[in-house]
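S49 family peptidase
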Amino acid sequence: RQQKPVWALCNDTACSAAMLLASACSRRLVTQTSRIGSIGVMMSHLSYAGHLAQAGVDITLIYAGAHKVDGNQFEALPEEVRQDMQQRIDAAHRMFAEKVAMYTGLSVDVVTGTEAAVFEGQSGIEAGLADELVNASDAISVMTTALYTHDTGGTMPQLTAT
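Tokens:
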């Protein structure tokens, strides 16, 4: 990132995994109506057990390995399995937040403190998830200007083919 700048432009949505990718960029641009954030993790469990029983359908699971069928959709979710899934989700969330924190310079507490909220435009900047508010049609100009500007503030002439 220091040798070759990589910029992200969120013209619409950069949530969840896209937020992680954007956070790894050296500069993050958002538009007024863009959505950014959703730094969280989720999974779901669906049980057909009651419906199948009511329909008279009996499913027999044949498996090897005590945890092979944990969380299957044919049985109600046992509390022990739910707790295991929650631990996995919590670990993945922590890893996600640590990466975003590392890339953005925010603390892990600030990142997790967003509680997976989605921010629009300026509020994404205020949350520390984006750097600059731009008009989408001006984004390329903003990037081009930065490309031809030295750290000293000088500008390099743009070369044209002869």
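The mean pLDDT is 91.
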